[in-house]
Every structure is written in C-alpha cells, then in structure tokens.
Amino acid sequence: RKEVEQDPGPFNVPEGATVAFNCTYSNSASQSFFWYRQDCRKEPKLLMSVYSSGNEDGRFTAQLNRASQYISLLIRDSKLSDSATYLCVVKDSNYQLIWGAGTKLIIKP
Amino acid sequence: GAGVSQSPSNKVTEKGKDVELRCDPISGHTALYWYRQSLGQGLEFLIYFQGNSAPDKSGLPSDRFSAERTGGSVSTLTIQRTQQEDSAVYLCASSPDINQPQHFGDGTRLSIL
Known about the structure:
The complex is a heterodimer.
Chain A: E1 4-6, E2 11-14, E3 19-25, E4 32-38, E5 45-50, E6 55-57, E7 60-65, E8 70-75, E9 84-91, E10 97-99, E11 103-108
Parallel strand pairs in A: 2-11
Antiparallel strand pairs in A: 1-3, 3-8, 4-5, 4-9, 6-7, 7-8, 9-10, 9-11
Chain B: E1 5-7, E2 10-13, E3 19-24, E4 31-37, E5 44-50, E6 65-69, E7 75-79, E8 88-95, E9 103-104, E10 108-112
Parallel strand pairs in B: 2-10
Antiparallel strand pairs in B: 1-3, 3-7, 4-5, 4-8, 6-7, 8-9, 8-10
C-alpha cells in the first residue's frame, strides 16, 4: 500500500461547479499536511497548508480527518485556471515529505 | 525576489555518461531537497540537506547517485553511468527550515538516450 494515495482522475468539472477530492495517508504519526498545485510540465507550487481545524483560502477549503487518516481539498466556483494536478503532501515524523501522485483536474467551459 | 535556480533546464545525454545538475537555493534557506518526477508520477524524494548536518540520503535509488552541498548553499546532484530509467525531471527545493513549506526550482529535464 502506498503511503499517500490519491485518485489520479481526471476529474472533468464544468466551470463554476464545486469539486472535492481526498487524499489518504497510512502513517498515523504524520505531522503536517499540504496541498500543492502542479501545472503541466511545471514545478509544484504550494497551494495551502492543512490545519487540524480546517482552513479556507478564498475558494479553496482544506480539511484534515486524523481519525480516518485523510485530507481533503474543496474548490468552489471553479475557474478554467484551476485546471491542474493537485498533489497531496504529508510530512512524517522524520520530517520527510511523502508525495502523492496527484489528482488531475480539468475545468471545462 | 530570486527564487530557487536550477541548471541546466534541459539535458540530453547518452547512456553511460555522467551528468551534474545544479541547484542554487533561496538565500538564507538552510534546508535543501532533491526530488525526481517521472512522467505521470508524484515526486520521489532523493536527498535532503539541513544546515551543516549529515544529509539524509535515504531516497537515493542507487550508488550511482550522489549529491553535495558546498558552503551550505549551492548543491550539485551527480548521476554516474546514466541509465535510461534515470530520465525524469529533477526538482530542487529549499525552505527556511524543515518546518516551513518548500519553494521549488523550475527543474532539470533529463533525457537519457
């Protein structure tokens, strides 16, 4: 079993819709959690950290469920520019980052 | 401001040759990471430097891979006797310390013929 698992997608979503995807992690001792966004043939860029109480940044909401060992990302009022691959990242107790393979999101006009 | 700088941006070389990839982190960032990303895959951790501590080499796939970080700044990733499976994008990242999010360079796209 992979340490960090994501649905590879693609998720095909009409512009303006709300979309959510999850990421599960296997190590219950994981300390920190992040969502990165990666555009095609580009480097990953930090989208947001994920806090225990959940956090929101504009149209983006991230949540952590430690009991079930998953994090989620919700995007409201999706834009064409949201099309990208979203990478889930988990920092383990050794401060090493474990990366998911990403979920591809395609926003259609 | 200046971000993480990697060179070259693209490298094409023949199987069996040695290659050197360079990363210049953001000034003042003590942590530096190397990853590689194969087509359609997530990032694979290779090696991590934190200040003057011994690097965490646990992700290096074979002894053909090595990395140095001179003076706590610039890092070089060296791949000896390259193989076709080494073809990937090699990404470097730096952060102010291990608890801070990482800032990535544009990567080096390595193609082994």
